[in-house]
Specification:
Elements (H helix, E strand, L loop, with lengths): L9 E6 L2 E6 L5 H15 L5 E7 L11 H11 L1 H7 E7 L5 H10 L6 E4 L2 H13 L10
Parallel strand pairs: 2-3, 3-4, 4-5
Antiparallel strand pairs: 1-2
């Protein structure tokens, strides 16, 4: 471990049905679980939404071998709800982490629009055009 303290991710529903999850520091297994718990709470609403993941630190999770299997298992458990409700995912990461973020996103078993951006404004526009608008959802607060 690099000595960084892992904080829990923060969720923002201000612009629902655009859900925002922010990781200020790399997440350990507990931080990743907390983020997945938040996503699962949004899935329980049974309403369509798009997800903006902001990895302010670059890599959203620490290089912990337990993270990817746990992530895959949790996604598998909510696969039907993901297919019903999650319309698309955009990840915002620093330029130095874009390739790693793209590779990580490509490994996820998700059949929906997925993309990685360096700027949040571009990610939001892409989510609106690629995921929300095709579902007839307009977010007036953006």
């Amino acid at each position: 471990m690099s000595g960084q303290i892992s904080m829990l991710p923060e969720g923002d529903e201000t612009h629902w049905p655009l859900a925002i999850l922010v990781a200020e520091t790399p997440l350990d297994v507990d931080g990743m679980r907390a983020g997945l718990d938040m996503i699962e709470s949004w899935l329980r609403r049974e309403q369509p939404f798009a997800l903006l993941l902001v990895a302010a630190c670059g890599c959203a999770f620490q290089r912990d071998v337990a993270v990817l299997p746990m992530l895959a298992q949790r996604l598998d458990l909510v696969r039907e709800a993901l297919c019903r409700s999650l319309l698309g995912v955009a990840v915002v990461a620093p330029a130095s982490a874009l390739d790693d973020a793209r590779r990580s996103l490509a490994r996820l078993p998700l059949d929906m629009p997925l993309e990685v951006f360096e700027k949040g404004s571009l990610a939001v526009r892409w989510l609106c055009a690629s995921a929300l608008s095709p579902a007839g959802i307009i977010i007036d607060s953006l």
